[in-house]
Design goal:
The complex is a heterodimer of chains A (362) and B (364).
Chain A (H helix, E strand, L loop, with lengths): L1 H8 L2 H28 L4 H29 L2 H34 L13 H6 L3 H34 L3 H9 L6 H12 L10 H8 L15 H26 L3 H9 L4 H12 L1 H16 L3 H6 L9 H11 L3 H28 L4
Helix pairs in contact in A: 2-3, 3-4, 4-16, 6-7, 6-10, 6-13, 6-15, 10-13, 11-12, 13-16, 15-16
Chain B lengths: L1 H35 L3 H6 L8 E11 L10 E3 L2 E3 L1 H6 L1 E2 L5 E6 L4 E10 L7 H7 L3 E5 L5 E5 L3 H32 L5 H11 L5 H14 L5 H24 L4 H9 L4 H12 L1 H17 L2 H6 L9 H11 L4 H21 L1 H10 L5
Antiparallel strand pairs in B: 1-6, 2-3, 4-5, 5-6, 7-8
Helix pairs in contact in B: 1-14, 4-14, 5-8, 5-11, 8-11, 11-14, 11-15, 13-14
């Protein structure tokens, strides 16, 4: 009570003074640190520590100092302004880095390569006729169809098996582990497995197995287009199955035991129980895992970049986006490909909104 | 009883199938790990699985021919003659052993007999090679030597830390503040703004990259750490906000009312009460965000660019794959260095990691 009474008494000039000074100090201080760090030639370790300290303490100090000023305001104003201090930085960042760029990208997708004049739907027409871009679209479809399906089926299979096995925890840890590592590292791992060298001696595991069975070694990721894409998709499956497994396993454990027992008593076999009772029971989870993996697969980029760089007809939309944007500086095609990805995820956005509305969170 | 025995039988089957699947899942990583400790010349000559006991031709003896032996003529060894081509591929001698050149120029022949063996030569040279910037000498499979410059990954490791820690703390702090306001403060447009956050959850990064990178180059933020912190903070915010919201909004209402009565301000309630209570949630989402940033390739590729002094691990390794695609001794060691942190986090904080991931499942 004391503090609010004191705040009410504070004179307008003092409040105004602090309201101007604190933002100015923040801007000046952080800009100064930024330029100092950028131009310094400190030892890397020292630089790292300073940078981390600044990055972490800096953000907190911004909230803290602005809040001090707001606390000076009369209660009525404080209550109005304070929420905007709390969400301000978040909304600002989201607006600057996601929302406004989405609109700008949409506009650019109707402009030419250097974003200087409007070309209508020409970029979209090009995306759906240009052979390279069409290949990217086709491959993305392959990724979604084969990759997502394999992840879900394998994830479900392993979840069911693990549930009935005697080493559930260990098995889950092993299957889940690839989830933690980067696609770049996974790319190296699998490039080594697919490695091909001429001659009898193969150091790549897959070719060694093929040779052992008397077959001919192959350059897996460049041969037999478009099926070489499947060898890249295997990497996604290796990494993402663990994700599907963990979530589906949690859902499986939620199926009430008495329903299952009742069905078995009625003479239903395990397979019938699985398809008629378990699957319908976990269908919501199944759907949300599927959409998550599809969204993830649509944006696939790192694997293709590391494994083939998009050669041998393995280009996908995200790598083609990178090529158009970064190498050819064609902002028109680049934006159009990004918008194609956005359109592909719109059903998922709607689905998410509905889910959350159902939970009563908005 | 019959039913029971059938159950144990099927349990054995389940265990076997699952064990096979687990083995398949494990083999790729094991292959990488084993290879990273093998000498460069061995990696290119024999598969990594030969470190396990296996049967192959083992050199039991060597025969030194006269230095002036003419290789274009039939070559006489132990009273029988062979051609140079035969000796190159390896040829059976009458006693069942195999004759093969060890060193053609020195006219040295190996006499090999099949037997059990293991390739157990291990080394730390590969790690020294990738971690330091020193030059070092490499023995090639044909016996010649080559000097190579190390790839100085320790600098990249440090850079990755410098990128990852603030890029985790900043968005989660900002998101927690926002989540608190969304959950417990009244302000105009609250619902609209929250719907916006949900919509942005699955928006592909690609739709933002071109305009943001234009802004960043105008502001001089491309190619330095501040830029990539801001980028990661923005891209990680929707999920972090949603994740923190779902926890903070579930807290009991009385908690806030009693704190208000005691004269606490929103700021102190948030920092003294909410943040400590939310530590498990913060841990989960932090691990998720940290690994996301640590493993990221696309965002660093676009915002950090080509300068070597700021590059992170994923970029350096991707570059190595492009430029030295068959230097497996370096690639395997480098990949494993980049996996150290994720694996350590995964094995020590698995519970939080899984929870963060389940929460992150809406993002995709």
């Amino acid at each position: 009570m004391m503090s609010s009474a004191a705040a009410a008494k504070r004179s307008v000039p003092i409040i105004a003074f602090w309201s101007v000074l604190v933002p100015l100090l923040n801007i000046a201080g952080h800009t100064a640190i930024f330029f100092l760090l950028r131009s310094s030639s400190l030892h890397p370790v020292l630089y790292a520590i300073l940078a981390i300290l600044w990055g972490v303490a800096g953000v907190y100090s911004i909230y803290w100092s602005f809040n001090l000023v707001i606390e000076l305001y009369p209660d009525k104003w404080k209550r109005r302004i304070q929420p905007f201090l709390f969400i301000g930085p978040a909304i600002g960042l989201l607006g600057w880095l996601l929302l406004i760029p989405t609109v700008r990208t949409l506009v650019m997708s109707f402009q030419d390569a250097s974003s200087s004049k409007f070309v209508g739907f020409a970029n979209y027409a090009a995306v759906f006729t240009n052979r390279l871009l069409l290949t990217a679209l086709r491959n993305n479809l392959l990724w979604v169809v084969f990759g997502a399906t394999a992840c879900i089926i394998l994830g479900l299979l392993i979840a069911v098996l693990a549930d009935r096995s005697s080493f559930e925890r260990l098995a889950k840890t092993i299957i889940f582990m690839p989830m933690a590592i980067s696609f770049v590292a996974a790319g190296v791992i699998w490039k080594f497995i697919y490695y091909y060298q001429p001659g009898e001696e193969q150091i790549g595991l897959l070719n060694a197995i093929v040779v052992w069975f008397g077959g001919e070694p192959q350059a897996w990721t460049s041969m037999m287009q478009p099926w070489n894409n499947l060898f890249l998709i295997v990497i996604l499956v290796w990494m993402q199955t663990g994700f599907a497994m963990v979530i589906l396993s949690a859902a499986l454990k939620g199926v009430p035991e008495d329903i299952l027992e009742a069905a078995r008593m009625d003479g239903a076999g395990e397979i019938r129980v699985f398809f008629r009772i378990i699957i319908p029971y976990i269908s919501t989870t199944l759907l949300s895992v599927t959409t998550t993996i599809i969204v993830f697969t649509l944006k696939i980029f790192d694997v293709v970049m590391v494994m083939t760089g998009g050669q041998y007809d393995t280009e996908v939309v995200a790598t083609q986006f990178y090529r158009q944007f970064f190498m050819y500086q064609n902002f028109g095609y680049g934006s159009t490909l990004a918008i194609v990805l956005l359109i592909a995820v719109i059903p998922v956005i709607v689905f998410n909104l509905r889910q959350i509305r159902k939970q009563g969170e908005i | 009883m019959r039913r029971n025995s059938r159950r144990t039988g099927s349990k054995k089957l389940v265990n076997t199938i699952l064990a096979i699947i687990c083995l398949i899942w494990l083999v790729p990583t094991v292959g990488l790990l084993v290879s990273s400790f093998r000498p460069a010349s061995d990696i290119l000559k024999t598969g990594w699985w030969t470190v396990a006991p296996h049967r192959e031709n083992i050199t039991k003896d060597q025969i030194q021919l006269p230095k002036d032996t003419d290789l274009r003529q039939p070559i006489e060894v132990n009273g029988k003659t062979y051609t140079d081509a035969e000796l190159r591929a390896g040829v059976k001698a009458p006693d069942g052993s195999t004759l093969i050149w060890e060193n053609r120029r020195a006219r040295l022949i190996n006499v090999q007999k099949p037997g059990w063996t293991m390739n157990t030569r291990f080394t730390l040279d590969n790690y020294e090679g990738v971690l330091t910037g020193k030059t070092y000498v490499l023995k090639q499979p044909d016996g010649s030597e080559r000097t190579e410059k190390g790839s100085n990954l320790s600098r990249a490791f440090l850079n990755t830390l410098v990128v990852s820690i603030p890029a985790t703390v900043i968005p989660i702090l900002i998101a927690s503040f926002a989540a608190y306001a969304f959950a417990w403060l009244k302000f105009p447009l609250r619902k609209t703004l929250f719907v916006l956050v949900i919509m942005l959850l699955v928006v592909p990064l690609q739709v933002a990259l071109i305009p943001v990178s234009k802004d960043f180059s105008a502001l001089g933020l491309n190619g330095n750490f501040l830029g990539i912190w801001i980028a990661h903070a923005g891209f990680g915010l929707p999920l972090a906000t949603y994740f923190m919201y779902s926890y903070i909004s579930q807290l009991p209402k009385d908690l806030f009312e009693s704190a208000y009565m005691d004269g606490a301000t929103n700021f102190t309630i948030f920092t003294r009460l909410i943040l400590p209570l939310a530590v498990p949630s913060i841990a989960s989402i932090s691990i998720f965000q940290f690994l996301w940033v640590w493993n990221d390739y696309l965002v660093s590729l676009i915002f950090l660019g080509g300068q070597e002094d700021v590059q992170v691990l994923s970029m350096r390794i991707a570059n190595m794959v492009g430029s030295r695609g068959d230097a497996w001794h370096l690639l395997t060691a480098a990949a494993f260095v980049s996996m150290l942190m994720p694996l350590a986090v995964f094995f020590s904080l698995q519970r939080y990691f899984v929870r963060g991931l389940l929460g992150g499942s809406v993002k995709g």
